[in-house]
Design goal:
The protein is an all-alpha fold. It has helices at about 1-30, 35-45, 50-75, 80-85, 90-120, 125-140, 145-170, 175-185, 190-200, 205-215, 225-255, 265-275, 275-305, 310-315, 315-335, 340-360, 365-370, 375-405. The radius of gyration is 20 Å and the shape is globular. One of its GO terms (biological process) is iron ion transmembrane transport.
């Protein structure tokens, strides 16, 4: 009589591990080296008004993620397969955007991991990048790679979350001022909103958790409660990280300290808050953020091509390892190609409206979702997100890209 109960408990524990793993995979993927720098720069520029940017970006994140994750689960298909059903060939276009963006940004993630080990242990950044890449490769080289990936994402996420909250308390930020600006900001920046949303939910990040749940067999209408739970946990973790980091840096800039935007503003903020040990704390956060982003980008990018050929499906882990090796090699032997990263950023800003738009069309196609009825409370806000991000992304890119080449 006890054995079935034990099996049931083991099954429940396994499922919860997958749900939290998918949530933290999305959360840690969205909190990469670029996120740390962007938050420091925008907080210095907008001060307490950046609270409004965070609030708006969180609202957009909620509706983007919940729509995408639900449609993937109900259809039982990956993003590229859904896109190909909506319009033949569109899946290949979407996959190309995702893979190109993931590869280009992984170069920055590998670089960030090297800088993290440099700040934490004093290791040369190039050597640190190589060591970090080997760690990421090991995750996918072991027999139960998916489980290891889940654990790494959870451990890194909890570590980052704890340290960010600690630093936020140490800097004693003007919380009342931040709360006041959440709904009525003194300054407004569309560019900050687009950058933050694109960096935390754009590109491969939109699909990271949904594809992980699908690979674990959580799908169909019966799986929707679990999908919703996992997506909300991921968004919640990301939101708390954003808010904690923002408050930590706000506490510093509100005291009149000016961060060097051309250097490493996030590292400066941590050093100012905690003294010399702040550099080590920043190094831990930077490395955890970067290496989990390397893992998330590689896993999700390859998940967009694995359905195109049985060979890729069979040896998907080796393709993931190859993805990591290529992005690391570009950093080690060529350096960070600025132009590629700029173009990848431009693509990333446009992927969200394309991807979410495709998902919303699929949500109302019986040949894709069967008898499932997608709720209007998700459809309507989702359409608003698509329109807003499409207009603002194109407008922002047309204004900002020429400046980068002038």
């Amino acid at each position: 009589m006890k054995q079935p109960l034990l099996n049931e408990q083991q099954s429940s524990a396994t499922k919860n591990s997958v749900l939290f793993g998918a949530a933290f995979l999305m959360a840690t993927s969205s909190v990469g080296p670029g996120f740390l720098t962007q938050t420091a720069v925008f907080t210095q520029q907008l001060a307490a008004s950046f609270a409004f940017v965070i609030m708006i970006s969180l609202v957009l994140d909620v509706f983007a993620q919940m729509n995408v994750w639900r449609i993937i689960a109900v259809s039982g298909l990956r993003g590229q397969e859904i896109a190909n059903k909506v319009l033949p060939g569109l899946g290949y276009v979407l996959a190309a955007f995702i893979v190109f963006g993931g590869l280009a940004f992984n170069i920055g993630n590998v670089a960030g991991a090297g800088l993290g080990l440099n700040a934490m242990l004093g290791i040369d950044p190039v050597l640190g990048a190589g060591i970090s890449a080997l760690f990421a490769i090991f995750v996918f080289a072991v027999k139960e790679a998916a489980k290891v990936m889940d654990r790494v994402a959870q451990l890194a996420g909890v570590t980052m979350l704890g340290l960010m909250i600690y630093v936020a308390f140490k800097t004693t930020p003007p919380v009342k001022e931040a709360l006041a600006n959440t709904l009525w900001p003194e300054q407004m920046s569309i560019f900050a909103i687009i950058t933050l949303v694109g960096g935390t939910v754009g590109g491969y990040i939109t699909f990271a958790g949904g594809h992980r749940l699908l690979d674990a067999g959580i799908k169909g209408q019966e799986g929707l409660p679990d999908v919703t739970k996992s997506s909300l946990i991921g968004i919640g973790v990301t939101g708390v990280m954003r808010i904690a980091l923002f408050l930590a840096i706000l506490g510093i800039v509100s005291q009149g300290y000016v961060l060097n935007e051309e250097g490493n503003p996030a590292a400066e903020a941590f050093q100012y808050a905690l003294g010399d040990v702040g550099i080590q704390v920043f190094g831990i956060i930077m490395w955890a953020a970067a290496v989990t982003s390397v893992v998330g980008a590689a896993y999700t990018s390859v998940s967009f091509i694995r359905t195109f050929h049985p060979f890729i499906e069979k040896y998907s882990n080796w393709f993931i390892i190859g993805f990591i090796i290529v992005s690391t090699s570009v950093f080690l032997f060529i350096g960070r190609p600025v132009l590629v990263l700029i173009l990848a950023g431009a693509a990333n800003a446009l992927i969200l409206p394309l991807a979410l738009g495709v998902m919303l069309i699929a949500a109302h196609r019986k040949d894709i979702v069967g008898t499932y009825k997608h709720p209007k409370w998700l459809t309507i806000p989702g359409i608003v997100v698509v329109i807003m991000m499409a207009i603002f992304s194109v407008k922002t890119l047309m204004e900002e890209i020429p400046k980068l080449f002038s």
